[in-house]
Amino acid sequence: MKPEICFGSAWRLGTVLVMVLIPSMSANSALEQAATPGSDGATQQQMEQGAYLARAGDCAACHSAPDGQPFSGGLPLATPFGIIYSTNITPDPVHGIGQYSFEEFDRAMREGMARDGHHLYPAMPYSAFAKVSASDMHALFAYFIKGVKPAPTENRENNLRWPFSMRSLIAVWNLLYLDGGEYVAKPGQSAQWNRGAYLVQGLGHCGACHTPRGIAGQEEAYDESNGKRYLVGAVTDNWFAADLTADFGTGLSGWTKDEVTDYLKTGRTARSAAFGAMAQVVGASTQHLRDQDLTAIAEYLKSLPPASGVTVLASPAAADTTTGALRAGTVGSRGAQLYLDNCNTCHHSDGTGALRIFPSLAGSEMVNAPDVTSLIHIVLTGSAMPSTKIAPSALAMPDFAWRMSDQDVADVLSFVRSSWGNQAPSVAANDVGRLRKATEVK
Fewer CB within 10 A of the terminal residue: the chain, N end or C end? Predict the structure, then answer.
């Protein structure tokens, strides 16, 4: 099999999260393991910039299997159309990209076309990578060809249902959905804003997870010009990637720029914590970005307008009522009793948790989100915060699937979503059952 260059984070399996939680095989350490001195026309500055950009693109996450050499591929990626295995992108001349010229590498990254002329599946976010500047693309090529250790790992056959296994269909997909073209700075916006937009829309490919997809798997928007669909939140690999717009109560409206930067740097803030697939992104990618780039990302994200127009307002009076009842042991519902038995120790009677240790449930954007996928998922399977340089403790929430029925999970989450001023719809046991099956939790 011939290698495909890169796969996006849109359809990662849970094994990616395992890579960041197990230090010995983490994607977070993949670049250090892979980096070797190189020259042959590639300057040291290019090599260093390429390594940095590879982190920004989180390339190791998809292209490093738990037991494999960094960038040697083999990670199964679950898509709605079947399983795609990430490919070997080391400079191995047989199974990797060692024979690629820069022009061939550039075409694969921007147009989704492999060296031998076959189309790459858009699980690789080449629609986002098309926005990468020429100089950055040269730096990435220099790093992958001269700075990564070759791995003679054979690529695995994909397991896609017909007709999605027909690569010829990708040509039609490209005609319909691939705009192409490097990022062009927006007049009237600051250099910092444009840098943030470049990173979010390009190498960061944030839309691959946070933007809803259409019937053909295409992102429904690629930048802020379609503010009603861009980064409004979407389900990816049985997690709900959060709304990054200024929607009040469910998006970033209540966040400051410093909180966004802190979250990307450490994976936790006074109001929230990274979990699920986002824990991997912080651990392997964003914590390593330069402060000025994190600030630029925050600048851009905080400029996005509200998308849905939905406003979730917390009620202080309701918060006091819930807190008082729990502290008094007055249980008015089955969900309240389940909360006292299973959640109260960490998240407390007032739902505020513990600062930067146990996330607050009161007023939480994820708790109030219109989609409950992540809430159900984390209760069933648990999750852990990323271990970062600034906050090394990978604090974890345990799984409760073994002790809670579908109705139990629905009841406790319905209680949380209607307590301490939260005003979100209840959770159905049927939804819990579907996700339990999808995550293979018995």
Answer: C
